């Protein structure tokens, strides 16, 4: 059975890097917009009997990226693919895994159902914001961890006095995973989210005074959480410039300006989403080898156990 790699428009550079790591060519694919905004996709060549992997993070613009993923998956299935796998380096709507009010949808479940309409046999994700979202998708999910990749990029920039900081209680387990690998202590910022754009930090657990903080998170969206965390750390005695690391660097809206104003010593992100690599002391660690390894193992019916989400 042949392996075919279909790369959508959401992150073509990552798709190309995965193809290079696998030693395959990207499958011929057209994905374009009509003047009215409708999406047209068409797959060339032959896919009959193939294992087809569709690389398409649901990155901004999220709606377009999501619909393109579904259309590509359906096109591959109708072209005779033996198996189709959605490769989602970044899964949008993972923050919407529960309702907090009577008039709200369960968005993560609905998005999972939409992806399921394309009849993908499996999905590959990386560092879901809420790991439980895996249970809201209708197909088996291989939830990979980019933590070892980010740790490797951080190792050269982590001074002996560093402390690994979770910017909220939900990130404590992730911070602990970083701390074990970097052999550094852990601290946690206590955060309250006021809105989708504003957060407030109101306390820290752990010793941070006189230490270099390394803030680790699964994603940086507008940067409000990082800003609030760094301000709280400074108020508690951190004087060295912070180091910031995350898997998904969405960096939307004022994120770059906010981070730049705080003058971090270093920012480590992965290429799970495409972003402009300017304006920050930034290092982009590629997850292409991780994804290529997972794709190869799935194609060859081998275990992914050591690649799955780190605890």
TrEMBL record:
Pfam families: Pribosyl_synth, Pribosyltran_N
Keywords of this entry: ATP-binding, Kinase, Magnesium, Metal-binding, Nucleotide biosynthesis, Nucleotide-binding, Transferase
Molecular functions per Gene Ontology: ATP binding; kinase activity; magnesium ion binding; ribose phosphate diphosphokinase activity
Signal sequence segment: none
Keyword Transmembrane helix: no
Gene Ontology terms: biological process: 5-phosphoribose 1-diphosphate biosynthetic process; purine nucleotide biosynthetic process
Gene Ontology CC annotations of this record: cytoplasm; ribose phosphate diphosphokinase complex
InterPro entries on file: Pribosyltran_N (IPR029099), PRTase-like (IPR029057), PRTase_dom (IPR000836), Rib-P_diPkinase (IPR005946)
EC id: 2.7.6.1
Reactions that this protein is recorded to catalyse: D-ribose 5-phosphate + ATP = 5-phospho-alpha-D-ribose 1-diphosphate + AMP + H(+)
SUPFAM superfamilies associated with the record: PRTase-like
Boundaries of every Ribose-phosphate pyrophosphokinase N-terminal domain copy: 4-115
Protein name: ribose-phosphate diphosphokinase
Species for this entry: Sandaracinus amylolyticus
Lineage: Bacteria, Pseudomonadati, Myxococcota, Polyangia, Polyangiales
